[in-house]
């Protein structure tokens, strides 16, 4: 069985949204929020790449339902456009694997899956041969925002969080201490970036419909992330709320 077929066989996409995604009617946790200060705020997007967000990507079989339900592809583009229209710094934290990364001697479950299906694979860190329109490349509609000479594309992260890349450095060097976070995937790289940025002293609000998670028999990754977003972030917003907040911010 081909790698893409192996992932596809793990899930049959179903169109019905999960009512468990709704915000609690009577939340027990303190209701806090992040105030946007344009001079100190950036939008950070994790892994806006073909392997996560396109039907042609190798993970679509397990992620496609969530991406479709949340309108993730369109919402991420809306956030990128928002950054450009409102002159907010935009940061992309991408995920790439090179041939030497396949020499790791131990892996977690998702690492092993990603490596086995060739997710985010590139031929070499110093060449773009074969990169354009590969699963590791950015979605085509995002490239006008990402490759404009202003967006910061950080060094690659290797597992989930930004501990191994220069995201925190790039943010601090620009005086940023507030982050609007979105991207892929919800309970993996996005959540890991949230945790590390919080540990590094950043204030972080997550855009909950500009992410998505895998749905497999082992669990619903999007639901798992939503719960943790509510527990630890400084705000959980929709894309629409984010646009409104930014447009009104000083």
From TrEMBL:
Matches recorded under SUPFAM superfamilies: Isochorismatase-like hydrolases
Origin species: Parvularcula marina
Any one GO molecular function term: hydrolase activity
Key words of the record: Hydrolase
Cited InterPro entries: Isochorismatase-like_dom, Isochorismatase-like_hydrls, Isochorismatase-like_sf
Region (Disordered): 1-20
Keyword Repressor in record: no
Protein name as it appears in the record: Cysteine hydrolase
Domain of life of the organism encoding this protein: Bacteria
Residue span(s) of domain Isochorismatase-like: 41-214
Hydrolase in keyword set: yes
């Amino acid at each position: 069985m081909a790698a893409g077929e192996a992932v596809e066989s793990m899930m049959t996409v179903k169109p019905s949204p999960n009512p468990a995604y709704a915000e609690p009617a009577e939340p027990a946790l303190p209701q806090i929020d992040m105030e946007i200060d344009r001079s100190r705020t950036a939008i950070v997007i994790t892994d806006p790449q073909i392997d996560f967000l396109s039907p042609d990507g190798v993970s679509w079989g397990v992620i496609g339902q969530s991406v479709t339900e949340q309108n993730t592809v369109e919402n991420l583009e809306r956030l990128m456009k928002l950054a450009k229209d409102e002159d907010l710094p935009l940061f992309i934290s991408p995920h790439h694997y090179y041939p030497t990364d396949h020499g790791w001697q131990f892996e977690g479950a998702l690492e092993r899956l990603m490596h086995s299906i060739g997710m985010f694979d590139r031929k070499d860190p110093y060449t773009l041969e074969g990169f354009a329109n590969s699963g590791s490349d950015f979605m085509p509609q995002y490239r006008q925002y990402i490759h404009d000479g202003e967006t910061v594309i950080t060094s690659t992260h290797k597992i989930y969080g930004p501990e191994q890349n220069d995201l925190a450095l790039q943010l601090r060097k620009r005086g940023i201490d507030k982050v609007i976070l979105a991207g892929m995937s919800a309970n993996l790289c996005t959540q890991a970036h949230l945790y590390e940025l919080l540990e590094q002293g950043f204030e972080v609000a997550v855009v909950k419909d500009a992410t998505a998670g895998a749905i497999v028999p082992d669990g619903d990754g999007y639901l798992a992330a939503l719960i943790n977003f509510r527990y630890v972030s400084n705000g959980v917003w929709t894309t629409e709320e984010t646009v409104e907040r930014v447009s009104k911010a000083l």
